[in-house]
Design goal:
Layout (H helix, E strand, L loop, with lengths): L4 H5 L9 H6 L10 H6 L15 H14 L30 E9 L2 E7 L4 H16 L10 E3 L1 H7 L2 H5 L24 H13 L10 H12 L9 H15 L7 H13 L3 H10 L3 H17 L14 H25 L18 H20 L7 H13 L4 H9 L10 H36 L15 H27 L1 H4 L4 H18 L4 H16 L7 H15 L50 E2 L5 E2 L2 E2 L2 E2 H5 L47
Parallel strand pairs: 1-3
Antiparallel strand pairs: 1-2, 4-5, 6-7
Length: about 675
Amino acid sequence: MADTPASLQTGWRISKACQECRKRKIKCNGSNPCKTCHLRNTPCIYRDVIRQRKRKHQTNRDSDSFKSEVTTHSGYGAGPRSPGLPSRRNPSNNYTINNSVSATHVESPSCKVQLYYGSTSNFALMHEIYRDLVSNQTPGLEKPHGEVEEARASLDMFSFRRIFFGTPDEPKESIKSCKSMDMPVMFLPRELANLFLRRFLSTLYTLIPFRSKESFEQQLEHLYNPVPGARSETWGQCMLLLALATGALGTEHYRWGDVLYDQVKATCGPLDDIHAHYQSEQGRPNSSFLHLGAASRKALSAGLHKEAPSQGGEPTDSVQERRLTFWSLYFYETWFCFHLGRPSSLSLRDVGIELPENPFLCTLTYVSKIIARLADEMFGHHHDSLLQMWRLARSITDDYRPYEMQMQQAIGVNLDTCPQQGTLGVQQTILTTIYYHTVLLTFRPFLIFRGRWQQDMKDPSQHGSNRPTEAPAWLNEACNKALGASCRTIQFLSEAAVANEFVRELRYHGYFLGSASFAIIYDLMHGKDLAPTHLPWIYAALQSLSTMREGDPIKSTITAIQTVLRKLNPAYEWVPPKAYNNTMGQQATTARPYSSDIPNPQTQSIPEPSLPGIPLQPLQTSNGLPILSEFQNNSLQAALNPPSGSLGSGEDLLDLTLSDMGWDFDFSTMDLETFFSIYPNGETPTG
């Protein structure tokens, strides 16, 4: 039945394939030599004996029985492995390019909390780094693994348990004497209340603008100067106190944040969207995720995702308020779930409401749509090869090309504009960091893949195999995109923290700096002689973090980065310059943030850069922060946006399949979440 119309329509099926293509399980064009063998310069041999395959009805029957046992997965969930797939004959080659992590926290004998974070989370990359640190210290500990890794040991090594589980870093100071909102809130001085509200309206208000600034100011006036006989608005006062609590976190009076937050929780229940912003600023991602999930369900149950039915002259302000509320929630839910590696509760398929008139929020919504596509197509589907994933990643980043123009139209600046002051600077920072962080997460799997490959090539037993010994150009390009996005994040936040106090005191920026630093650290661990080019960026991130007030999540991020640097080489640890003053609003004198004689792990001295033009020392800005103009001899913008077609057509590129790497299972049976992931059979070794 080889001549049936169905078989002729496929266009790519041929009657034969060479042995090399069969072994690698890649497409063969049937020529002699075929295209693949010609590119690889390998012998092109065709076998004489035709293999007898199953009949079509047998194949369909087997396929149906297989599908009945496998449930469709979505989001970041890992589909179960088929019982019909053969086990690995080469169990020692366990490579992780995107793993998930889980850990358990016992608060009391009756309270046991287990949390999961997916492959796009910062915790997953930190656990990758932990595994490599431990495997280098005690080789031969790796064993066959499952889908999700136990992260207990890595959390303890990096002192990151508080962030993972969202436990407070100090005892709460709650005021329990306030029983109702009708009681005048005179425990907070009016001057501080004004300060907290101004700070909120200048920063995070831009993400939740569903009430006007004037309404918050009027609510504050009514709170301190109530009109006799006037009826108090409980929900309005709750929103005001949450706004004050969030604004307090960016000041030296930050302890008022939890006081006000506890007052709201004890009085009027959850205002989940604002709760989520407060908890993320406090370094409690799981709590933010839960609040956002609750807010999403409430929005759906209230029908905010659909246009409201006409009610005879409904004011325009009410319509815009609905749209602002839903789309601000949609952005925060989509983005926050993505960077935690968890499925989102909101889908564009269900949305039937127009965009708001707020251009800044429209730009964030555009980003959300790209993130939703990335989460679904890149991290939620099966992939046949790494090259296929790279093509998809490039396709997704192509969607970002109109982004800079939208950013320019929304706030009047673009990605290359120097950091601005005031509220404009906050909006600029949000749009810039979200962009670069999304690019980083898009290409981070390739960085992890290359690191695993480089680590495996250090094994002498791999030198005599048929495996490629050099990474193809497209893989290096993908890794450069991830590293370039990391450096751009550090550079922008370091400069913005000096130019804008509002930006410096937004606690969540510590997450972006930490994520970028760990990506650079991962590449530093697996590359050769990279200390001169990589360490200055890590030190720049640490110095920027050190200008923020102490406490979590900043303290835990600095501790984790310093721990990794010490484990790699004690001389890599960052030492804050003595001349640097951490006091708010004061700038440092020009000082070098790291010693110029950092020894290399192998040579105990920094080698000269192998490529011309790589600066050994960082350029100094006016505030003493090290900012490099180039990375790996490539400008950052060029690394993020290479010329179209710079690597030739996709058909001419060298692919990497599992058989190329000596891995004995099929790409198409694994999704990116579970691809190469591990689960220790025994106790996870501690460092």
